[in-house]
Amino acid sequence: MSDGLSRRGFLKIAAATAVTLGAGSVVGPGLQRTVQAASQSAADVKAYAFVCGILKTQTQYLLKDTRVGSPFDIPVTFFVVRHGNDWVAFDTGNNAMVAKDPVTYWSKPVTDAYYPVMKDYEEFHIQLKKHLGIEPKDLKAAIISHGHLDHAGAIDNFKGTNIPIYFQKSELETIKKSVESGKKTAYIPEDFKVMKDLNIKAIDGVFDVFGDKTLVAFPTPGHTEGHQSLLVKRSGAKPLVLAADAMYTVENMRDAIPPGLAWDIPRSLTALYTFKVMDYIDAEVVPSHDPDYWKTKPLAPQVYPA
Question: b/e map of 18-53 (b: 16 or more CB within 10 Å)?
Fold first, then answer.
């Protein structure tokens, strides 16, 4: 197979796709099962989208070697999913300090590439309270796609709670190395200064949050080593696949353009191929940073559409 996608790699991704979209069960070393029992009746599942400001950047940082130097203003997004009476967050957006002093907090080299424009009221916990009437302590869990500054930036909002926060194991290892280095890159050490006070959970593979295949985290490495995406099987609507940075924009998937920032380009392409197959079987694959896509999408408190 081309573009660095081996037969073994393709079969591994195909198996994960089958599990996440409910085509059957796959039992293997990487499969994680929730400790919670599945509900006897199907839970009502709805998704709510949020935007935590924008990043002012250039196209080549999202679409490798594409329209180099073209300005590109992209949304910073996260989701909250309601599963019956339970709430689960997917990502958190930026740290609150980004709204106050982004250059000092992220560093000039980082803001030269990605300059954030964020208001105080766009912080994670403030938006949850305003639009859904809940607080971080009210969540059942949080799933973090990866540790980059615009996705895990507000995990400090969980300090003082015992809410489980799920990362892929390999992503936690990357975060640990980044914090130990003290360098500000796409990983900001200060974002993780409260990690020891949080209920961090490492997962390794596919993770069915409620045991009923309605909310399933699955690995999509490439952008980072431990990147994960989230399947959401909604009530009365097509499934959502929250790609996070495994698919910045629809153009990445459509034209198989790898991300401009990638730990492993061949693996990032594997994730894009997987999303294309999911799109073929009528899942709604949601890009994290596509301004054209997000232009027409309703935000919380409105329910994310079919």
Answer: ebbbeeeebeeeebbeeeeeeeeeebebebbbbbbb
